[in-house]
Each structure stands twice: as structure tokens, then as C-alpha cells.
């Protein structure tokens, strides 16, 4: 495809002159002979202005069939809005960038190969088996995995910087004088397509980083590290278990805000004062976190940015990028009343 530079070389003028002539700049002083020669050469070389190229690109993208694959059911999305927030970020930013999601596939439903065969590209939210996905889509260079614990070299991915996020939480709690720190989280799995049973269990990133950091500080107490199923009810139940110990933790990091809300209910029922008797830190910063009693200190996750990044990566692949890209999105610790200390925030 001809460029402005190609036209300038053949016409014997500068690229700036070519650009201004082709854009009909009224302030440009150039002879009619030169102007005519530039237009003639541009036509001869098949030059198309960037505006026309952009219009063509948008039309081509609009014809692409893009799928969104999620493991969670609509009911699970309502229970934990984390994944639905990422989905909304993908859908909204996709429309802005001219690439619309045409199909949503639920990975836990009985497997139907047909929807995959009709797709030009796929964004996967959550930990779904790489091989299953590639087998159905047929090519790995048109898949972006979002919030997936394991990276596949040939596929793009978007993940959170869990290590720095957990470090910001533990560093803050230690700075407040806490030495007996508990953890409530959920199990993580690599899901198989069409298999509702759960899949293959893997180590959950937040727990791994928490245990590593507390161990380095000489503060790890395994009996204070509990895992459930990521629901509000599970957060409530696991907090009851911590409260039943002879020696309770003085602080607890909870790996999702819905679980933290369940834990707060358990604390209220047992008459445990937050944060004076137990400090609480959540993860996600869902909207309701600022309105519970007390307002929840939590790690803010930029789900919209995760969605935007996933769409941008897939768009680049559709336009020919060959090398895989693994993007990491940062987080921020939002300090509210549930853990005490100064009301401030820190980047993670």
C-alpha cells in the first residue's frame, strides 16, 4: 500500500507538502502544477487517505464474529459481581473500539462445538482449560485469556498483579501492629468445558502470595488460612470457624468483597468489634463495599481496564500481530474504616 512518503519521493517534494495537498490545506502556497502532479501520483499509486483506511478497518472489524467464554452461570455472576464486571468492561470497550461481542458461551453448559466454529476470535474469562478452548476454536492466536492463573505461550492473557496487591494488604496490616493475620478465600480450579463437576484444583494466587509473605515475616499460622467457595455464605461460615478458635486473629484478609460481607455479618453476630477487635480487608472494591458497616477496606480491581486490554489485544491479533502478549493490570488498596489506620490509598 502506497504511503505519503512514497508519493513525496516520486513527486520530489516533502512529505509535509504531500500531506497538506492531499488534505486540501488552504494555507499552503504551492503551484498548480505541483498540486496536480501530487494528486496524479497518488491516484497512480492507489493511495488511500488514512481516514478511508480507518473506515475500511472499522467495517472489516464489524464483520468479525467475536465470542466471550465464561465458566460462571448467570446465577453465579449475581452472587459474585467480579466476573460480570469484567464482562461489562469487555462488551462496553469492544463497542467503543468497533469490535462487538456476538456470542456469550457458558463453559459449564453441555459442550456444543458449533458456536466456536463460527467465531473469528474469543475472549475467555476465568480459568478454563487451554487445550479444551484451542481444540474447539482451532487456533491459539485468536484467544485472549482474562484472569487465568496459567499462561499459555501462544495465547494472549490479561491478569492482575496479585503479588503486589497482597503485599500492599499485608504491609498495611503489619504497619498497624497486627501479627496474627487470618485469611479467608476460595478454591481455584482449571475448568473443563462442559464439565459441571469443577475441574482440576490449582493453588489460588492470593493465598500463595499471602502464605509466602507471612512466612518471610515469620507470621504464618496455617490454622488461620481457610478456603471455601467464593460465596457470601462461605465467608460467613469461615469467619465463624476463625471466631471459634481459642486464639482469634486480630486481622483478616478476605479474598473477595462478597465473602468479606458475609464475614462482617458473622462478626456482628458474635459481638466482635471491627476494627478494634478484628481488622478486615476485602478484595475487588465492588460498589456496596463503601456502604457496609463499617465501610470495607479493600483492594480495588480495575475490571474496566482488564476488559479494555483484552479487547485491544484481540483487535491487534485480528490485524495480524504474531507475538503473544501477557498484560498485567495493577490494583490499589482503598483504606476505609474496617481496618483502622489512616484513610488513604496505595498503588499496588
UniProtKB/TrEMBL annotation:
Domain HTH lacI-type: 2-58
Lineage top rank: taxon: Bacteria
GO molecular function: DNA-binding transcription factor activity; transcription cis-regulatory region binding
Pfam families: LacI, Peripla_BP_3
Gene3D superfamilies with a match to the protein in the record: 3.40.50.2300, lambda repressor-like DNA-binding domains (1.10.260.40)
Keywords: DNA-binding, Transcription, Transcription regulation
Record-linked InterPro entries: HTH_LacI, LacI/GalR-like_sensor, Lambda_DNA-bd_dom_sf, Peripla_BP_I
Protein name: Transcriptional regulator
Organism, as annotated: Paenibacillus sambharensis
Amino acid at each position: 500500500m502506497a504511503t505519503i512518503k512514497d508519493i513525496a519521493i516520486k513527486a520530489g517534494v516533502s512529505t509535509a507538502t504531500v500531506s497538506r495537498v492531499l488534505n486540501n490545506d488552504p494555507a499552503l502556497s504551492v503551484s498548480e502544477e505541483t498540486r496536480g502532479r501530487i494528486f496524479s501520483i497518488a491516484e497512480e499509486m492507489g493511495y488511500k487517505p488514512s481516514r478511508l483506511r480507518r473506515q475500511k478497518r472499522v467495517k472489516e472489524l464489524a464483520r468479525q464474529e467475536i465470542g466471550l467464554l465464561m465458566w460462571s452461570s448467570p446465577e453465579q455472576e449475581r452472587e459474585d459481581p467480579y466476573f460480570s464486571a469484567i464482562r461489562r468492561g469487555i462488551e462496553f470497550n469492544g463497542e467503543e473500539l468497533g469490535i462487538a461481542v456476538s456470542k456469550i458461551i457458558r463453559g459449564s453448559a453441555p459442550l456444543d462445538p458449533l458456536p466456536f466454529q463460527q467465531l473469528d476470535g474469543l475472549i475467555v474469562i476465568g480459568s478454563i482449560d487451554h487445550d479444551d478452548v484451542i481444540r474447539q476454536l482451532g487456533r491459539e492466536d485468536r484467544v485472549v485469556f482474562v484472569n487465568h492463573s496459567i499462561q499459555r505461550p501462544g495465547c494472549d492473557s490479561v491478569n492482575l498483579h496479585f503479588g503486589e496487591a497482597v503485599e500492599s494488604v499485608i504491609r498495611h496490616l503489619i504497619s498497624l501492629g497486627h501479627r496474627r493475620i487470618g485469611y479467608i478465600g476460595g478454591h481455584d480450579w482449571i475448568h473443563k468445558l462442559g464439565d459441571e463437576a469443577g475441574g482440576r484444583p490449582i493453588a489460588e494466587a492470593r493465598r500463595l502470595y499471602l502464605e509466602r509473605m507471612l512466612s518471610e515475616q515469620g507470621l504464618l499460622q496455617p490454622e488461620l488460612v481457610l478456603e471455601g467457595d467464593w460465596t457470601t455464605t462461605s465467608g460467613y461460615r469461615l469467619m465463624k470457624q476463625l471466631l471459634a478458635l481459642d486464639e482469634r486473629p486480630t486481622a483478616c484478609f478476605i479474598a473477595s468483597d462478597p465473602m468479606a460481607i458475609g464475614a462482617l455479618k458473622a462478626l456482628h453476630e458474635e459481638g466482635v468489634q471491627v476494627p478494634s477487635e478484628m481488622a478486615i480487608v476485602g478484595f475487588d472494591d465492588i460498589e456496596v463495599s463503601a456502604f457496609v458497616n463499617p465501610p470495607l477496606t479493600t483492594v480495588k480491581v480495575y475490571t474496566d481496564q482488564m476488559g479494555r486490554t483484552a479487547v485491544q489485544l484481540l483487535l491487534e491479533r485480528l490485524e495480524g500481530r504474531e507475538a503473544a502478549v501477557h498484560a498485567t493490570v495493577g490494583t490499589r488498596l482503598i483504606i476505609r474504616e474496617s481496618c483502622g489506620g489512616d484513610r488513604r490509598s496505595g498503588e499496588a
